[in-house]
């Protein structure tokens, strides 16, 4: 292959401009990314060689070598991993997914140190080399290919790159950085060792550098032709917990999660018994950008006997814990395990169940701790991930009770703090037989809902549920700890022992006196309402909408329609406050069909607006209101 000059994909050119002109505050992260790429290349070779040992080419010891040349001002990161073919070099180094670049740009904040941590998160780690280099040369050959099938890739980080064939005796990849004048600090043994110790100490294969010794004649250190490991070269999760510092745990998390912040919590355990495996699992402090993508796999990496098998092993963590990052290393799975085998394996099921319980246990420790700082951590976790965690109420029957205890909701008795179902039960009023709740699109709409009026009057606490997932999960959570869950927007209000006999008698008399109006309302709203009845749930409002017990709420029906899905064509029930002035006005309009009909429609549409809905004909509603005012 003769030398070719090719253009970068437009998104890469945009990215390179950002990298070279914006992200220079924390330059050292380039070495973290390039060593991680080299380690990944070795992992890929180890995995492919399970089925074809000839790929090792008589060099089974995998390693990364870092060297520099002060005279030439170059820094080289070399690995003997899987390497690349000509087309792979063009594809991997010249293009990048558009969405990755777009999301990368969107995340930039203007804080150079913070922004530089984003490198690697969107598959752009290689390009971080241009932070310190004005030219990068990549020499590579794929494992199993002939020496003459080597490839050299060269670019100055502008609009194009060159590719040509070379002879390369050894498999793998060498990335040669031609350092800028302001980056010569990276041609220094001490500086490089300190960066490797900070970011890459956990990598499970040796990172080698040439030894140096002091030459008294020259009064300087001289490089020897002898290599030594400058990292621990052992998997962090395989080390005893007592030998690992919190800082090392945090750095490992940042490495595997591409996160700039420390994790909120982590758990490191070795499980022994029928299955033997080690788990190191982290809960992030902040939600990732793709948290709501249910197709996103969990961020758990699977190893078997320290051999990397796959990223994002979705079979090891349920979808509602997809925010968890970490590593699971099994001693029992076969080394050639595939995604299909993972889905069918009983051993994997046991690992999944054990890891799920471990994560829930970690959350329970935070939630139930008496320590204020731990409680604050759980509050921070729930703010970021609570809605996703609650998906488990409908997905994980085994752990439903544990998840229900971890759930938190807003309440009519608290303007700021959320409450657990256990806390709600502990302060239920004497004679209260249900946990009352209201679902709504926003907290503001919920707090001002007319359906709460009778409960507020009697001081009965109502949970306010505003996450979109709540409507779905409540179809699975029918009771908590033996107490039924009751929506205040479904069915007739029966406060039982909480309502005295005088109130019940007054309600019966009001309903009897209001019968003529109810009959007229049923006729006027026959196309809108399934039924019309007098209510005891209202105090200040004239009317509200409810659905029958077991029926689909109007909010859920709206959400389905917004998502383009079919919703049952069901009508709500209109409940009217017989003591309200508008209700009494209706009574006086029984003989005037037109005015009665207009006020009936206004009453219905206002009830719809109060719960966050929209009248079918907003213009007609405005016209009726204006006519009534005039």
Into which percent range does the helicity of residues fall?
A: 25-40%
Number of helices: 22
The unreliable regions are 97-101
- What is the highest CATH level, the class of the largest domain? Alpha Beta
Oligomer class? single chain
Estimated structural class: alpha+beta
CATH 2nd-level architecture of the largest domain: 2-Layer Sandwich
Supply the CATH superfamily name of the largest domain. Histidine kinase-like ATPase, C-terminal domain
DSSP strand (E) fraction?
15-25%
Explain how this protein is built.
With about 625 residues, the chain is an alpha+beta fold. It has 3 domains: about 5-230, Histidine kinase-like ATPase, C-terminal domain (Heat Shock Protein 90, 2-Layer Sandwich), CATH 3.30.565; about 235-370, Ribosomal Protein S5, domain 2; about 500-550 and about 565-630, Up-down Bundle (Four Helix Bundle (Hemerythrin (Met), subunit A)). The protein has 22 helices and 23 strands. The chain has a 9-stranded mixed beta sheet with strand order 1-6-5-4-7-3-2-8-9, with helices on one face. Strands 16-15-18-17-20-19 form a 6-stranded mixed beta sheet. α1 (about 10-20) runs parallel beside α4 and α21 crosses α22. The longest helix is centred in the middle third of the chain and has 23 residues, at about 345-370. The N and C termini lie far apart (about 85 Å). The model is unreliable at about 95-100 (pLDDT under 50).
